[in-house]
Fold:
Amino acid sequence: MITLKGIYKYYDSKFQRTFVLKDIDLEISEGEFVTIMGPSGAGKSTLLNIIGMLDEPSEGEYHFLDQPAHQLSEKKKVEFHRNFVGFIFQAFHLIDEMTVYENIETPLIYKGVKSGIRKGMVAEMLDRFNIVAKKDLFPAQLSGGQQQLAGIARAVVGKPKLLLADEPTGNLHSGQGKQIMELLSQLNSEGITIIQVTHNEEFARFGKRIIRISDGLVLSDDIVSDTNEPN
Amino acid sequence: MISPYIKTAFRSISRNKLHSTISITGLGVGLGCVILLLALVIHEKSFDRFMPDYRNTYLINHGTSARTAYPLAEAMKMDFPEIREFFRFYQTSGIRLRDPQNKLVSENNFGFSDASIFSVLGIKFITGRPAVSKSEVAISEKTASKYFRDVNPLGSVLSVKLNDTFIGLEITGVYYDFPSNSTLFPDFIADIELSEEMFKKFQRSLGEFSDDAKTSLNWSHSDYYSYVLLEKNTDLESLASKMEKYKEYIQDERIRDREYSFQQVSRIYLGSSEIEGSFFSRRGNANELKYYGAVSLLILLIAITNYILLTRAGTADRLRELGTRKVLGASRFTIRKQIILESNLVAVISLIPAVIVIFSGIKFVNDTLGTTLTTGIFKDPCIWILFFLVMIFTGTISGFFIGSRISRIPSLVLLSGETSRSTRSGRWNSSFLVLHFTIYIILVSGVMMVSKQVKYSLSNFTGISPQNIIISELNSEELKSGFTAICNEMEKMPGVIKTAGSSFIPPFNAFLPVNLATTEGEKVRFDGLIMGEGMTELLGIEVIDGDHFGTFQETPREIILNESGATEYNIRAGDNFMGFMIRGIVKDFNAHSTHSLIRPMVILQQNPSRMGLLAIRTDGKNDKAVISRLGELYSQISPDEIFEVRYLTDQIRDFYRSETDQGRIIGVFSLLAAVLAIMGLFGIALISITKRTKEIGIRKVNGATIGEILYLLNIDFIRWALLAAVIAVPVSVYLLSEWLKRFAYNTGLSWWIFVLASFSALIIVLLTVSFQSWRAATRNPVEALRYE
Structure:
């Protein structure tokens, strides 16, 4: 599904070139649950953003579903965001002026889903994530965990193939974090490919594959053994 | 697809209440001014188009005069088949009449016309019919309700004093008021032949200087408006050339050779700047109209740029939202659409302050510009379409500006909240700022210049000291013959320095051309005045040769010349000039407004029993008693008269009404510009200080004082204000020196005007920016750095 070949990301300043990612080769197939780990400044988020087409690699090739993503036009990228990918953020990034319901509905509006069908889809999400009672509240009226639930609902309502989560539990306490991670596992078991970035070793093990990077280089790429799976 | 946007837009407007209020009010005030001025322009252009066949209705001009001889229009109707209809019109002011309660009142818009005026203008009667004989009058709806309230006025007799005696006029009809966009505006319309009385009165006021007193109306009475309604497609030039034959009837050779021409009624109001004789009809000023059009565009420009600035300042916390939207699949186009929609929504909401501005502004505009704009103009759908277009234009342009930048920022940057790092937006902001302050400085120096010139004009009448001179009119035969007695009585009053009579008291607005002629037919033309004995002394006019007027004598007639006149014809006091004795030569003085230069002038002496005006110079301490004593004397001598007095200084102030009014209008605009500029500045200061929060924190941690931080934050803005001054000063020097050219005697430009205007801009900048930077500078630096 995702193929990265020789991906470099660097910033040029006057006298030197600062590398964020160096020669990343990566293959992720459909249905995987990948965790990217590493210290601050290792390039985790940059890698995730390149995969999510929020950022562009300086060099290298990126194929998404066998399409050369590094050559996509602005228009095609918008299509990609609408149809194939959902994002979950550390800071939730819900729109403050919108209710929970409207927040979840927004991607469907951009996708051009008809109003009647939209209602059904949003209702299904609210139901699934147990936030029906909160649907008319604004983000500021919710707890962090509830906000992230709404964030996940918004990310998956459009039935994306790929879910990208940048430290989804970073702003939550551990109880709420665990709940969110369990939800992600469940979504993965239903077939959505998930890539998450995290600092938390425990939550990292919810993934089936852990990629550790440091200073822009891949250090290790391990399949998580079933015995290590947390209970 | 649209409604969710509107919903969120509303929510974000109501969330930032202070910010939204400021930007909506700013935009609304700007929009209101623009629409008000545009409405004014439309109104001014609509004049006289209410007439049923205005395309074929013409006013006859004679040379550069709008006024023609009494018999002209009637003769044309008889001679030329092209004339479908005609009417003549004359109007006078200061007419005394007795109201139904027998109280004496003064009426200003007393018109005389042929009955056909109503059919040509399309003015209908509520009841009755036009006046058709010399003992009848028709009155307007307004007048009828003023004097008769609910009583039917038909058949009532109004007692009107046209020529020193009261005559009874029977009311034959009540007509609908003339529209506000009509150049004519009579409240009474009497038969045209009755206007004869007015000429008799005027000729008497000139006394023996007029040669055709007491003749009935003829070709020498050339003070009438002649309107004609022509057949479609009449060849105006050939008609005018056929009118050549009327020339022989005109005795005054100065005007005999003037050509006749036809002015379509819709062009009268704005197209008469070269035409004289518009005393009793409304006239607009096409140049001023262009000027107001330009100013309205300027205000729109300020309002839009100001809104853009404020909105950008406000979008800082919305960037994250827009970033999220982009990640969720919104394209650049959708984002731009959303922002344009939102700013259109703001424009719609800003209609509320705009409407308030419009309705409270109409009276101000009418008062200052002497226009007749009414809210009735908003019944016109065109105005609403215009209204709508201006609004959509404003919303879309500003939305486009705001949106096109934001939509181009990558979503990652938006999400991180680290925006406006680009210097480009900073450059836009500061150029808007420079623009606002340039306009502000130009307007403020304009206001100061105008008031300086008006002040100068009021106090610098060369050769005349106009202070403390009380003037009253001698309006009846009794008062005229009692003139000497009144003077003697008044001079006994404490506080009265001198009394004198005159037919004209300078400075006055009109010109009185006087021809001195010898029996051999030689003629010399002068600017003229007619004054009584003592008037030159009373006005403080200085004699440089000979003497002031003595006791009036029939022969030899004595005259006084001014210095320019004496020099031009090389005359000295005591000389005989064209059959007149030169009594004295006076120093040049301004007999008219300082718009015009002093010309050679002759002062004729008036017979003490024919004075039209009485002037009293006082010491200014006892004026109340003086005026009430004068009133007593008046009512004793002539109980049928209304007693009115005015000061000569008020008469002078009237000359500069249009300048004073322009000053007031520019004053309001500059206030507006100042307010909008402050709001914009507030916005920019907010952006830039927020952007530098971290920098300020670091500097403070490293030991910077509050004073140093304040300096740091203010210096940029001061630099922009100085740049604005550099641009504004040459522009306003040019504009103001052009404006000063309309005064023959002007105060000149002064450097301090521009320094003061620029300085006031600096003060505004310092106060506004310091208000915000103080908060930033005194904040605990830990707080600022915590953001990282």
Remarks:
- The radius of gyration of chain B is 34 Å.
- Residues 3-41+286-455+657-785 of chain B form one domain.
- The interface with chain A takes residues 1, 4, 7-8, 11-12, 15, 320-321, 323-332, 334, 410-412, 415 of chain B (CB under 8 Å).
